Amino acid sequence: MPVSPYDVIVIGAGPAGYVCAIRAAQLGLKTAVAEKEFLGGVCLNVGCIPSKALLRNAEVIHTLKTGGGEFGFEAGEVRAEYAAAVRRSRRVSGRMVKGVELLLKKNAVDILRGAARIPEPGAVMLTPADGSSEISLRAKNIVVATGARPAIPPGFTVDGTHIVTYREAILQETPPSSALIVGGGPIGLEFATVWNAYGIPVTIVEMLPRIAPLEDEETSVELAKMFARRGIEIRTGGTVKSAEISDQGVKIQLQAGAGLESLEAGQVLLAVGFRPNSENLGLDTLGVGMEKGRIAVDERMATSIPGIWAVGDVTGKLMLAHVGSAMGKACAENIAGKQGAVLDYEFLPRAVYSRPQVASFGLTEAQAAARGISIRTVRFPFQANGKALGLGEYGGWAKLIADESGRLLGAHLVGPEVTELLPELTLARQAGLGIEAIARNVHAHPTLSEVLMEAAHGLDGGYIHL
Question: Which residue of 92, 324, 381, 446 sits 20 to 30 Å from the alpha carbon of 5, by its own alpha carbon?
Answer without folding.
Answer: 324
